[in-house]
# Entry
Amino acid sequence: MKYRAFAGFILRQMHQWESAHGKRATLHGFANHLNVSQPLLSIWFKGDTKPSSEKIDFLAGRLGNDVHEVLGLPKPDPDLQGPDQILPRIPGTLRRSIVKQAEQFLSGTKNETQRRPRRPT
# Structure
């Protein structure tokens, strides 16, 4: 059981989810809640493997950033969490437009910094 801490964490999360719903949850129901397959959830319960980085970020959104601590990973930057969760819900064309505007902003900021005259020291 290589990932015992994560297995315990995911089991505690299932119990909390059960308590919040006031009834005993099935493995299938909790897997649906996490948007993962039941076999994958079973593997996590056994502690044989850890989630992929994409799944870790998704689980953090569902279960909180404690998932990072349990796996010994740094927590994500809180300033990036908002956009990270909002962008996937924005239609593709608009999302690409927002990203392009951000890139243009950064490019302009970089150029302004380079154009500023140096002050004598």
In short: Residues 61 and 85 are 8 Å apart (CA to CA). The chain has a mean pLDDT of 81. The two ends are 61 Å apart (CA to CA).
